[in-house]
## 1
Amino acid sequence: MIPELKKILEEVALLQPPPDLESLNEIRLKYLGKKGSVTSLSRGMRGLPPEMKPEAGKLLGEARQRLENFIGASEKRIKQETVQREIESEFFDVTLPATQPSFGSRHPISIVMDEIVEIFISLGFQIEEGPEIENDHYNFESLNFPPEHPARDMQDTFQISGLPLLLRTHTSPVQIRSMEKYRPPLSVIAPGKVFRCDADVTHSPMFHQIEGFTVDEKVTFGELKGTLDLFIHRLYGPKTKTRFRPSYFPFTEPSAEMDVSCATCGGAGCRICKQTGWLEILGCGMIHPNVLRAVNVDPDKWNGFAFGLGIERIAMRRYGIGDIRLLFENDTRFLRQF
Ligand code: PHE
């Protein structure tokens, strides 16, 4: 038994530090477990002749002590190493730049709309808004539309089924609503959504207009032209030319459409302006006396001009957008470009 114990002591002295708790446990079981060699040797102590007991006991104690020291130290080391590895694997560099959150961008319609409104505010116009759901009186009748006028046709107008209401087909009703609210002299700019039953690459059933009008004493067509010229020069640059063509609207007399020189070809003629060198941009005219009468403004004392323009058309030209539907599909790859 004594040689066996000595052999164990030698083995223990040569034990390699175990890499993990599992292999450490194997060592523990091999010597100190129920069937471990040290345990079975200590059981054999009883059968030893008395004169051998002291030496065997001493060697046994020493073997046990050394093993316990070895196991204790290994366990401590392995645990420390585990913690260290965890710390290292969880390390991150707090000085690295963070991933940028993606920001939204302004919609091209909002950009153009604000820009136009801003120009008219600088000219002393005030902003007014009207409801998108209107009735026949505000949308047509008070604006001097004859009862059989084609613009009242169901094909153009979204009627609200079962009710005497419709989605406004233009922002001109805001002329009436503003003049009911304030008395002249008055200059108003009225941006908003309008609705027409129409859809293709250049028409959307919902689009945006800006209405503008002035009512005062002795307003002239020259003032209308001057105001719109100034507006176009601010929007498109001072080299842009304008021209006025006679036109017809029930609520203005005389009426005109304004064209601007095509920015793409500089007036020489191209695909965008259909070889004419000009682009139609807005409708305008002197407010019809019947419109003033509808809001109890005396047309012998007061008169004015009005104009209405489509935002989509201006935005599409400004940014070279070929299909109006892109503006309303909310594809962020498109919207991010503005
Ligand atoms: N309301 C007209 C339209 O939608 C535009 C317009 C406004 C024309 C004011 C003249 C004066 O086409």
## 2
Amino acid sequence: MTEAILEENEVSESDDTSAEQQHKWVYVFEEGNGENKSLFGGKGAGLSEMTRAGLPVPPGLIVTTEACNAYYDNNKQFPEGMWEQVVEALAEIEKKVGKKFGDSSNPLLVSVRSGAAFSMPGMMDTVLNLGLNEETVQGLAEQTGDLRFALDAYRRFASLFGEIVLDVAHEKFERVMDRFKAQTKGGKDTDLKPEELRGIIAAEKEIILAEQHAIPDDPYEQLRAAIAAVFTSWMGRRACGYRRINRIPDNLGTAVNVQAMVFGNMGANSGTGVAFTRNPSTGRKELYGEYLLNAQGEDVVAGTRTPNPIKELKKELPKVYEQFASIAQLLEKHYHDMQDCEFTIERGKLWMLQTRTGKRTGAAAVRIAVDMAQEKLIDRKTAVQRVTPEHLDQLLHPTVDPDAKAEVLATGLPASPGAAQGEVVFSPDEAEEMAKEGHKVVLVRLETSPDDFHGMVAAQAIVTARGGMTSHAAVVARGMGKTCVSGASAIDVDYSQQQFTVDGRVIPKGEWITVDGSTGRVFLGKVPTIQPQLGSDFHELMKWADKFRRLGVRANADTPLDAKTARGFGAEGIGLCRTEHMFFGDQRLAAMREMILADGVGAREKALEKLLPLQRGDFIGIFREMAGLPVTIRLLDPPLHEFLPNVDELLVELAELKMALRKRKTLADMDLLLDQIDEKRRLLDHVNKIREANPMLGFRGCRLGLLYPEVTRMQCRAIFEAAIIVKNERKQVSLEIMVPLVSVSEELKQQVDLINDVAREVMGEHGMKFDYMVGTMIELPRAALTAHKIAQHAQFFSFGTNDLTQTTFGLSRDDSGRFLPSYVDRKILSDDPFQVLDSEGVGELVRIGAERGRSVKPDLKVGICGEHGGDPRSISFCNEIGLNYVSCSPYRVPVARLAAAQATLETEAAEAKSKQTAKQAAQTL
Ligand code: PEP
Ligand code: MG
């Protein structure tokens, strides 16, 4: 294969240009190319590219995605001319292989596979051996000199056609197989004799007949029906569900690949396999995969027989192995990425059946990107773009603590890394329901199929008793970054009893287990887990990302420990320290409540005195951890309901005290109880007095500091005193004080005056002077719209997009979770706006706020610290509108660094492209 051939891959579209000529719906592989996946689908594109490069690919044709879309536009009829083009292309295939479709002495058999632009579970997969009937099966037997083989091919075809095209339940065919296998000596597929295979075929046909269907005898009718079935599966429930979750548009359509059959089940020098050009779990540069001799592809994927590691092929068929290894290398060099290849060996000859970009774990993605850049297969920019935010997320997954005492129940294959735990469930529906109710579940199945996808999404982890590293469960879980152990064969799953058994030990539904997808172990109970160590590849990639990004990345951190974690992940400062979060602990909460409930300034100041040293202590810890980096401390913003006792609970406590009073034994008891009742009543009265109907829009944010200036005073004193203490340790403190929930510029002005007063006071007391900044959150629409006025008093802005989303949509942050998912399901909203910034509405206010703020202060530093600061798509938006930084939770920091770099690189690429287009346009003029 030469690069020159591979690069010359424009579609020859000259046939389409004449208006009289019919639209081209069908292409033979030689006519397709690897670039146009949207027309040929991923599989068709890969097969075309390999064919054009001269690799051994069985001849075939592609019915395009356009044809699929036209089928739907055309009331589920093939578009005009499509079928004739299929027949014509099939004739070309016949010529190439020297066999004839439907011929009773020398029949051509084909496989029919779906192939969308993105690989998609839930779509019709494969019908093999299409073209067989009672006559052609005889021809196949003569052609191959192997009656048993021909009948085996026929029984496979009948069950696949029945299941996939005619929608007959798979289990029904499986039961027939099991029954016949049980009658043989060895009990395996390969033990079935011709007469038993004939029995199976007859039984399969009966099953189909019982469901009012029949397999057409005419191979062309079979093909017609199979192509229509592929088109229909595009709009099937599972495929639509998958597309919705993965945000794949419905109007892409699927292509259909019809390809001459080659057989991996023609004896000991035949076989089939799947292999990756690098290890998809670790990223190591090695061929990684599995194969089975004397088997067809479905045997590997279905997990019904346990395949051998690809390395063993080197011993069994060394020439084929060498050829495959060199093709794998060639493909990697050509695609500049790790490939996932399917192959079949027919009587010692290697055939390539598929190549596509291989799915990989987060760890593998990082290692492959870094290695390939170092091998000069890709540049560093490409390496940074190759790793997705989801990959990094996966990399940050916990692992099982190796020192923990834990009972291993079973060991299977380490199909997808990470450690997760939950209650055992056996059905995907139940997994989904229980997860909705807040349970953590582990889905345990014999093996999985696309039907189980929703349960896999809902589960923390997946365990299967059967299947290899490329089984459905393994591939899908890896793609989702979900922990999975497959092929844990010691587990005996009993769906009817809702339990599994290992070595006689029964684990019922609801029992907790822990799954370690990195080692393949399944443990009983909740085993402690630890955070992963990030390797040198990760740090290297992050270094490259940091070079390319324009946006700064800070962390939202409220404690010294958070600050330390954030710094470890590469945060360049703290963008939001929520001071109210420092008071969630029991003792601290009591002091905070005392402050909130205090009657008058005196009482409040007394409570604040208790809070001051606690705050100062926390600030000291944070300044130490972040020495040299900016720390934005936000003044108190407690929606009061988060800190007040619950009224219902108070009522219950009061009732209990009254009951106790009735049962009192001594007079002293009575006095004590009366005092307690009195106190509880006062508390209840007080809480009722300050309780708000809508605390999120109530006495919070700067409103608190304005009406209770002693609160702001205490906080600022704690902040400045802490800064002085840490500065005296010769550490650099870069302090930013932030005022929350401002809507009117005067609010900010008054708070800034107060902050400056305290600063002067404290610095005077300590004879020290230093710079600090005062800025504000922009989290209300009015603030965004009047940002030019607010900016006059602010040295920086930080967009609080949680509140800004709440107030722009008029949608409660606390309650919308109940119905927002339905909004997304019904496509009223494309995403939950509390997760992904609504760029059209809320984002527009951010853009306006930043622009208006900078119109009076061009150098105004502007960041974002709502949850969106850790969301890749929102980060891309922040980059686009020119914010200075994003701030997110510590564990999202690496993701944000990567997403920020990718956003810059995407913008650069788009700019370069538009420059190029403009240049070309200028040249043509
Ligand atoms: C915000 O509103 O986006 C924000 C960061 O503040 P909080 O979530 O604390 O209200
Ligand atoms: Mg807020």
